[in-house]
Known about the structure:
Order of helices and strands: HHEEHEEEEEEHEEHEEEHHHHH
Distance between the termini: 17 Å
Mean pLDDT: 84
Shape: globular
Low-confidence stretches: 110-115, 322-329
Strand order of the largest sheet: 2-1-6-5-4-3
Structural class: alpha+beta
Amino acid sequence: MDSDSALKLNADQASIVTTIETETAAFVNRDVDALCDCWVQESYVQHTTILPYAGVVQVKGITALRQHVLSHFNNEKPLDIKAEAIVRKNWHFIVRDNLAWVTFDQFGIKDSAAHMSGLQMHTRILEKVSGCWKIISSTGVLSRLDFFDCPKIQVDGNAKILNASKETIDVVAKHPVLRVARGRLSATLQEDATRLQKAIQRAQQDIKSGKARLPVPVIFGEEFGTENSFCWIAILDMKIVVLLDDIKFIESTIETAGQIYGLTTMQIRVAEQIAQGRDLATIASSLQVSINTVRTHVKRMFERVGVNNQKALLQRLLSARAPAIGQHY
């Protein structure tokens, strides 16, 4: 994994970095034995990940850690992540005899696998065992604001826009439903504006109560004769953020929903394109099948998911809950 190019390491520091990189490589390759071998084989080891939208994951003891990793991998194939897609910077080391304390920032380069994207702030405590540095404690704090590679708008509980780039405002100006009115994010139709406001208010209540959750979809449009359109209301780093057009998150969420509801590969592809606002004729052309075939896939999805219209279908699929995205493990 790429580290600071100008980093000058002594022998202990270089060995520590190798252990950390070896553990990450084992995680990417879904190699439980290699990952656990990077840890001290004792009951006092501890792994902690702090997720702004999903709370705290904490595991104590090497036996529990192995079981946790096995459960997390769940017979998954190795991740498609190249070594250069993970960059570590801002290293700090304190080494005292057989103990070491290390901090660093980890960045997943855009377009790398979702598991590693965004900023992660890490701390490791290591012990030298038989001349080799092994991990005692691992703590990762994940910043989600830069995990989502899409236009995003930070708002307060009244939908007042607090932060948005010019590019994002340009996207909203062309959006089929959303609009900016007197400095607040709203929607063209009153029904949609009310739906959006209620979702933002719920997010504000969740922040006040300390409740963690994944982004929630707000779906607009179908009942008014227009194409489906939606946005996500997310709590990221304890801020209310409206996400637009995050294709990667759409695809990963619908793939998870496909596993939950038993959808076929083709049904998942159709659902992903519906979520991107495409009509059935465009989907048929894209997938090189007939429009009747697409209609059949949609009908089968209605039956499997237990709904009778596209809006309800998207609501179910986009609300499917997966293990927390982006967590180290």
